[in-house]
Design a protein that fits this description.
The complex is a heterotrimer of chains A (271), B (212) and C (260). Chain A is 52% helix and 13% strand. With 271 residues, chain A is α/β, with parallel strands linked by helices. The longest helix of chain A has 34 residues. Chain B folds into 2 domains: 91 residues, no CATH class; 75 residues, no CATH class. Chain B is built from 7 helices and no strands. The two termini of chain B are 19 Å apart. Chain C has 260 residues and is an alpha/beta fold. Chain C starts with 7 loop residues before the first helix and ends with a helix. Classes of the chains: A alpha/beta (271), B mainly alpha (212), C alpha/beta (260). At the B-C interface, helix 2, helix 4 and helix 7 of B face helix 1, helix 3, helix 4, helix 5 and helix 6 of C.
C-alpha cells in the first residue's frame, strides 16, 4: 500500500519543519517539566559551596570556541554565577585561542553588575602549546606575564599568593574536547581538585575519569547547566531549553516509531 | 637525502618534545624557547600556503565566471578583509576602537554563522535517526531500543513518562557504553603509540610523499 | 635532568614497549614472524567505493579529518594520510576524480604531495589539478559548511571520512547520505562513532584506523606493527585483570606502580 511506503520515506523537510515548531513552542511558552539533579552536577555545586570567599581562588580554564555553541558556553555561565553569588574570586586561562573571548563575554556581564576586574576575577588569556602549555602553566602560573588587558599578572590583586596550580582551591575546565590533557599534565601529577564542564556529546568520553575519581564533578552540556540553575534557585535559559529538548526527543522517537511501523507492515505485506 | 634529513629531524625533535614534558632540566626550556617558536613559524607558513591555494582556486573561478563565482568572490573578500583588519590590530594594539570593531564583527557575523551550522545538527540528528533506526536485525533492534531509552532518559520528559528511565539511561551509559568506550580508547591509544613510533623511526613515510 | 614524579613508570614502559614493538616489526620484516590480518569489510569497500564513483562519472570525496600533525592526535591524522595515499592510488587506477578537503594548513602540503605522487606513480600526472586537494578553512564550522557544500554541488558518489572527527561528523555523514553517496567512515573518535554508524555504509572503529595502512599495503613491517599492537594490548589486559584482583583484595600495588 502506498501509505506504508510513505511511512518509511517521509520527506525530511516535513521532519525539519515539525522539529522547528516543537522546539520553538516551549521557548515561547515554557512547559515547566520538572528536572532531576544528577550527582555529577551536585558534586560541582557542593565543592563551590564549600569554598571560603575571602581565602580561596578558583582557576577556570576556558578551552572551547564559539563554534561549540551554547551547549559549551551555558555551563560556565551557570558556574560563574554561583561563584559570584558566593563571592569567590576566580582567574581564567585558556589553551584554546578563542577561549579568552568566551571568558570576556562572561566578564563583561559581571562588570556591568558591579564586580571589579583584577579584584574579583581576571583573564590571563591564551597560552599556546596545548598539553605542554597546560603543564607549563600548572608548574608556574606566572609564566603568563600579562593578562588580556595588558596588566602585569603579578600586579593583579586576585593573583596574589598564586604561584602554581596547587595554590588554586579548585580547578574547573570548560571544554568541547578531551579533559584527559589536564588530567595527564596537572591533575594527577599535582593532585589538583578538578572538575570539567563539557559538551553533551563528549560526556561519555569523560565518564571514565569521573568514575575513577580523577574528575570530582562533571557538568555535561545544556542539561547540566539546567540542573545547576535549579540548584542555584535561578531557573533561566537552560531550564527553558530543556523543555524544547524534551519535545524534540519525543518527536524524533515518534518518527522512529513511524518508520519502523512502515517497515514491519511492508515486510508483512511482502510475505 | 630528500627523505633521510626530514626523518632525522623528526626523530630528534620528537625525542626532545617527549622528554621535555616528562623531565626536569634544560629540555623544557629548549622546547619552549626553540622548538615551540619554530612550530609557530612553520604553521604560519602553512597557513600562507593554504591561503595562496584558496586564492588561486577561487580566483580562477571568479575570472572564468564559473557557476557560483559570486560565492568565491565573497569568500576571498571576507578572507582578505579579516586578514588585513586583524593584521592592522596586531600592528596597532593601542587602537581600542579597531579592536572593538573586530570583536563586533566576530560576535555578530562569525559567531552567529557558527551557531547556524551547529543548529543544523539537530535537524540532521532527526532525519538520520528516522532513516537509520530500523529493526532490521537483532543488532539493529538493540541499537534502536538503546537509542530510545537514552533519549528518554536524557530529557526531563522521560522521568515523567516512567520514573526509572533516567536510572536505566545512566546504567546504559555507565556500564555497556563505558565498557565499549574504554576498550576502544585503550586500543586506539596503543594504535596511536605504535603509529607514532613508526613515524619516529621513519618506517612510516607516507607524509614525506610517495606511494605505499 | 631527571624524570618528573608521576612519569617514571610511563617512561620506562615507553622504552620497554618500543623495544618489543621494534623487535616484532624487525622479525616480521625478516619473515621470521608471519602476520595475517583478519578481513576488515570497510577497507575492502574502499575499492568498491572508488569503482562506483568511476561508473557513475562522479567524484570521490575524501577527508583526512580535523586533526593536525602537531598535536596529541597527530597519529590519527598520519593514519588518515596513509589511507589517502591508498585512495589516491585507487583513483588513479580507476581514473576517478578525487576531491580531498583539508582543514588543517599543516596537513595541506602533505596531502598535496601524497596525492600528486600517487597520480605520478600511476602514470597519470594530468589527473592532479590545482583543486584536487582543497584547503577549506581551519575554522571547524567553516570547514564543515564548505565540505557539505562541495558534497551537494559536486554530487560525490563516494564519501570517505578518515581520521579525527568532532561534532561535525553527523553534518558530513548526513550530507553524504542525502546525496546518496556510498560512505565509509574510519575513525578512533569514540564520541562520533554513533553518528557514523547511523549514517554510513561502513564504519571502521578505533585501532582499525591505524591498521588500515598495513592492511591495504600488506607491508611486512607495518603488519608487524599491528601484531605488536595486539601483543601490547594482551599485556595491558593482563595488567587490568591483575590490578582488579589486587585492588579487590585490598592491595594498592598496581595503582601505586602506575602512578609512579
Amino acid at each position: 500500500m502506498n501509505w506504508i511506503n510513505k511511512l518509511q520515506t517521509i520527506d525530511r523537510r516535513i521532519i525539519y519543519i515539525l522539529l522547528l515548531v516543537v522546539c520553538a513552542i516551549p521557548l515561547v511558552k515554557p512547559l515547566g517539566v520538572p528536572l532531576q539533579v544528577t550527582d555529577m552536577t551536585r558534586d560541582v555545586y557542593d565543592i563551590i559551596e564549600g569554598l571560603e570567599p575571602e581565602k580561596d581562588v578558583v582557576l577556570l580554564s576556558f578551552d572551547y570556541a564559539p563554534g561549540a555553541g551554547l551547549d559549551a558556553h551555558i555551563v560556565p555561565v551557570a558556574v560563574v554565577e554561583h561563584l559570584a553569588q558566593r563571592g569567590i574570586k576566580w582567574v581564567s586561562v585558556s589553551f584554546n585561542p578563542e577561549g579568552p573571548m568566551m571568558a570576556d563575554l562572561i566578564i563583561k556581564d559581571l562588570e556591568s553588575r558591579g564586580f571589579k576586574y583584577g579584584i574579583d576575577f581576571a583573564n590571563l588569556g591564551y597560552l599556546a602549546g596545548q598539553e605542554t602549555a597546560i603543564r607549563l602553566f600548572a608548574l608556574d602560573c606566572l609564566t603568563i606575564t600579562t593578562d588580556t588587558r595588558g596588566n602585569k599578572t603579578t600586579d593583579l590583586p586576585v593573583m596574589q599568593g598564586i604561584k602554581t596550580a596547587k595554590d588554586f582551591a579548585f580547578v574547573h575546565q570548560f571544554t568541547s574536547d578531551d579533559p584527559a590533557m589536564w588530567i595527564r599534565q596537572a591533575v594527577d601529577p599535582m593532585g589538583l581538585r578538578y572538575a570539567v564542564g563539557i559538551v553533551t556529546v563528549s560526556v561519555p568520553s569523560a565518564m571514565p575519569y569521573y568514575n575513577s575519581g580523577q574528575i570530582k564533578g562533571l557538568l555535561g552540556g545544556l542539561k547540566a547547566a539546567a540542573e545547576y540553575e535549579t540548584l542555584l534557585g535561578k531557573p533561566g535559559r537552560a531550564v527553558a531549553m530543556m523543555d524544547a529538548q524534551s519535545m524534540a526527543h519525543l518527536l524524533i522517537i515518534g518518527f522512529i516509531f513511524l518508520g519502523n511501523l512502515g517497515y514491519f507492515l511492508g515486510k508483512k505485506q511482502g510475505k | 637525502m630528500r627523505k633521510e634529513v626530514p626523518m632525522l629531524i623528526t626523530f630528534v625533535v620528537a625525542i626532545i618534545v617527549m622528554l621535555s614534558s616528562i623531565t626536569t632540566g634544560p629540555l623544557p626550556d629548549v622546547f619552549k624557547n626553540h622548538i615551540s617558536p619554530w612550530m609557530t613559524i612553520v604553521s604560519a607558513f602553512a597557513v600562507g600556503l593554504a591561503s595562496v591555494n584558496l586564492t588561486r582556486v577561487h580566483g580562477q573561478k571568479i575570472s572564468r565566471k564559473r557557476d557560483g563565482w559570486v560565492y568565491s568572490l565573497i569568500l576571498l573578500g571576507s578572507m582578505f578583509f579579516y586578514g588585513i583588519f586583524r593584521s592592522y590590530i596586531e600592528i596597532n594594539p593601542s587602537n581600542m576602537a579597531a579592536a572593538e570593531n573586530y570583536a563586533l564583527c566576530y560576535n555578530h557575523i562569525l559567531s552567529p554563522l557558527s551557531s547556524g551550522i551547529w543548529a543544523c545538527l539537530a535537524f540532521y540528528v532527526a532525519s538520520s535517526s528516522y532513516r537509520a533506526f530500523r529493526a532490521r536485525s537483532m543488532e539493529a533492534t538493540i541499537l534502536l531500543v538503546s537509542a530510545v531509552v537514552v533519549m528518554l532518559g536524557a530529557a526531563p520528559i522521560g522521568a515523567q513518562i516512567w520514573s526509572k528511565f533516567p536510572a536505566v539511561q545512566r546504567w546504559l551509559m555507565n556500564v555497556p557504553n563505558m565498557t565499549g568506550q574504554r576498550g576502544i580508547i585503550i586500543g586506539a591509544a596503543i594504535g596511536s603509540f605504535v603509529t607514532a613510533l613508526r613515524v619516529l623511526l621513519g618506517i612510516e613515510r607516507g607524509h614525506l610523499g610517495g606511494t605505499q | 635532568m631527571s624524570l618528573v614524579e608521576g612519569n617514571i613508570f610511563g617512561f620506562w614502559m615507553f622504552i620497554v614497549i618500543s623495544v618489543v614493538a621494534v623487535w616484532i616489526m624487525t622479525q616480521s620484516k625478516n619473515g621470521k614472524f608471519k602476520v595475517t590480518l583478519r578481513r576488515i569489510n570497510g577497507l575492502e569497500a574502499l575499492e568498491e567505493a572508488v569503482g562506483r564513483a568511476t561508473e557513475m562519472g562522479k567524484p570521490v570525496h575524501y577527508t583526512p579529518g580535523l586533526g593536525d600533525i602537531v598535536d596529541n592526535k597527530a597519529a590519527e591524522t598520519f593514519a588518515a594520510m596513509e589511507i589517502l595515499t591508498y585512495v589516491a592510488d585507487l583513483s588513479a587506477k580507476y581514473s576517478a576524480e578525487l576531491i580531498v578537503t583539508i582543514r588543517q594548513p599543516n596537513v595541506f602540503p602533505l596531502a598535496q604531495e601524497s596525492v600528486k605522487q600517487s597520480f605520478v606513480a600511476a602514470g597519470k600526472p594530468d589527473m592532479y589539478q590545482e583543486n584536487t586537494v582543497r584547503f577549506i578553512s581551519s575554522n571547524q564550522d567553516a570547514y564543515t559548511s564548505g565540505v557539505v557544500g562541495i558534497l551537494h554541488r559536486e554530487q560525490a558518489a563516494a564519501n570517505i571520512m578518515a581520521g579525527l572527527f568532532m561534532g561535525e561528523s553527523l553534518l558530513l555523514a548526513e550530507a553524504g547520505a542525502q546525496i546518496g553517496a556510498m560512505q565509509i567512515a574510519i575513525t578512533a573518535s569514540t564520541t562520533q562513532l554513533p553518528f557514523f554508524v547511523a549514517a554510513c555504509d561502513y564504519t571502521i572503529i578505533g585501532e582499525e584506523l591505524f591498521a588500515a595502512g598495513a592492511y591495504v599495503s600488506q607491508d611486512k613491517v607495518k603488519m608487524g606493527g599491528i601484531a605488536a599492537q595486539d601483543y601490547i594490548k594482551l599485556a595491558v589486559m593482563a595488567v587490568i585483570v591483575l590490578g582488579t584482583i589486587l585492588s579487590t583484595s585490598g592491595s594498592d600495588f598496581i595503582r601505586v606502580l602506575l602512578t609512579k
